[in-house]
């Protein structure tokens, strides 16, 4: 494969942060998904991506608390509160509920934060018992100083 300045894919890298399955009022509900530290100093931009699928009763919601943490020494962390109780999905009122999928994204300029990054995403279902969701988080990093960022 030939990499050049127009090959955007060669300039992106993904970093897994976490995944959780939750049941309203039970396992995983309102429990933080804390990602591992990522050395991001070689990139100048990034995106925190949260994907979800949720089975929700009519009018019930899946909401997220989203934090971006950064550090220069991988030890002392500064928190940027991205969202608090951000409703990302609501059960359909016409059919009495629904299964919804979607993506929440937060863009950031890596040059304005520390060398290391990680995320904490806390999903919350506001129903009890029957609603379920699966939430996954990752970083997409771009603007690498050396390309390609991945080979193979």
Brief synopsis:
It is built from no helices and nine strands. It has strands at 12-23, 33-34, 38-39, 45-57, 61-71, 78-90, 97-108, 116-125, 132-142.
Question: What structural keywords apply?
Answer:
single chain, 152 residues, mainly beta, 5-stranded antiparallel beta sheet, 4-stranded antiparallel beta sheet, 9 strands, 0% helix, elongated
User: What is the helical fraction, as a range of percent?
Assistant: under 10%
User: Span between N and C termini?
Assistant: 9 Å
Task: Please state the structural category.
Answer: mainly beta
Task: Provide the succession of SSEs.
Answer: EEEEEEEEE
Average pLDDT reading: 90
The number of helices is 0
User: What share of the residues does DSSP label as strand, in percent?
Assistant: over 45%
Radius of gyration: 17 Å
The largest sheet, given as strand count, sense and whether it forms a barrel, is: 5 strands, antiparallel
Shape: elongated
Multimerization state:
single chain
Low-confidence stretches: none
Number of strands: 9
Task: Characterise this structure.
With 152 residues, the chain is an all-beta fold. It is 0% helix and 57% strand. It has no helices and nine strands. Strands 2, 3, 5, 6 and 8 form a five-stranded antiparallel sheet that branches. A hairpin with a 6-residue loop joins strand 5 (61-71) and strand 6 (78-90). It is elongated. The termini are close together.
């Amino acid at each position: 494969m030939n990499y050049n300045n127009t090959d955007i894919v060669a300039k992106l890298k993904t970093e897994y942060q976490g995944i959780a399955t939750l049941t309203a009022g039970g396992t995983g509900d309102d429990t933080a998904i804390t990602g591992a530290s990522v050395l991001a100093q070689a990139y100048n931009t990034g995106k925190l991506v949260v994907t979800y699928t949720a089975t929700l009763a009519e009018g019930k919601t899946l909401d997220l608390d989203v934090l971006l943490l950064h550090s220069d020494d991988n030890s002392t962390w500064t928190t940027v509160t991205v969202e608090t109780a951000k409703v990302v999905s609501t059960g359909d009122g016409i059919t009495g509920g629904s299964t919804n999928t979607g993506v929440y994204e937060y863009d950031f300029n890596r040059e304005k934060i520390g060398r290391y990054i990680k995320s904490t995403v806390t999903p919350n279902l506001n129903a009890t018992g029957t609603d379920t969701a699966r939430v996954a988080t990752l970083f997409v990093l771009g603007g690498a100083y050396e390309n390609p960022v991945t080979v193979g």
